[in-house]
Design brief:
Length: 290
């Protein structure tokens, strides 16, 4: 389906999707976004292999790595406290958040979702203002969202939703740059770089030699050259250590003050619904997934 039609039908789809059998939901999602049914018995493309993982991969290690709080604990124990962005506080409900006591500037995010952040850059003059009530409602909405309902990402169903607070980090002109290392069988194949996420989101892919791949995925390539990170060698090293023993995992990292910091581990990027351009890269990435 084309994008305008998909947007038109989205509210209708959300009403009845939860009543669908899981496999039917996964197959129809794939059809809606990729324009074809997935081959689940002998998956060939990257998106088909994510679809199969959603249905059949129940590796008990995965929920502990997609839970942002549990993952921080694991990474700190494995690589040291300096490898993680510190967690300043955590809450089980939005009602527990005391805006007067938060360390500003900060970011509040749910441990069971990806890409949903609430940025608080300065302490409000009055924490009881209506604006803070709006923020609290937003946090409550985040706690109620479930990936396992929206896209059948099983691992998230094993996470008790919580809110965590991290320090806000100024990434400079283009924001904090995300380095997302696509790791297959413990080997990095491609490095996805996301810049200007909250302004003019750009996304580029590089190989291990930092040569740009002629590829787009959802967002256009950045309009400027992205320099190789100083810590690239270290990024590859830790991503491969984290990815060892998994057929596929995307390891998200940052470079902050000359040091590598862990962001998150992703086993279902884009829920397998993001469309590669050109489409041949869907098969190329899929071929790395043994």
């Amino acid at each position: 389906m084309n994008n305008p039609l998909r947007r038109l039908l989205k509210p209708v789809w959300e009403v009845f999707r939860d009543a669908l059998p899981v496999k039917t939901h996964v197959v129809l999602d794939h059809l809606r976004y990729h324009g074809r049914f997935p081959n689940l018995q002998q998956p060939r493309t990257f998106s088909e292999k994510i679809a199969r993982r959603k249905l059949y991969d129940r590796d008990p290690r995965i929920p502990l790595l997609v839970d942002k709080i549990a993952a921080k604990e694991q990474m700190a124990a494995r690589f040291g406290e300096e490898f993680i962005i510190p967690m300043l506080a955590s809450f089980t409900s939005e009602a527990e958040v005391n805006f007067a006591e938060l360390p500003y500037p900060c970011v509040i995010k749910p441990n069971h979702l990806s890409g949903f952040n609430v940025f608080l850059k300065e302490q409000p003059a009055d924490p009881n203002l209506a604006d803070m009530d709006k923020v609290r409602r937003s946090l409550g909405w985040l706690l109620r969202q479930r990936y396992e309902n929206a896209s059948e990402e099983w691992a998230y169903s094993r996470i008790a939703p919580r809110l965590l607070v991290e320090p806000w980090i100024d990434g400079g002109e283009h924001g904090l740059i995300d380095y997302k290392l696509h790791t297959f069988g413990g080997r990095v194949f491609a490095i996805q770089v996301d810049v200007d996420r909250y302004t003019h989101h750009g996304r580029c892919f590089f190989d291990m030699a930092w040569k740009k791949m002629p590829l787009e995925l959802v967002y256009p390539q950045a309009a400027y050259e992205i320099p190789q990170p100083v810590t690239l060698e270290r990024m590859i090293q830790v991503a491969e250590q984290i990815g060892e023993g998994f057929s596929y995992v995307r390891v998200d990292l940052y470079e902050i003050a000359g040091k590598v910091k862990f962001g998150e581990a992703t086993f279902y990027p884009g829920a397998g619904l993001e469309v590669f351009n050109p489409r041949e890269y869907d098969a190329l990435f899929g071929a790395q997934w043994k």
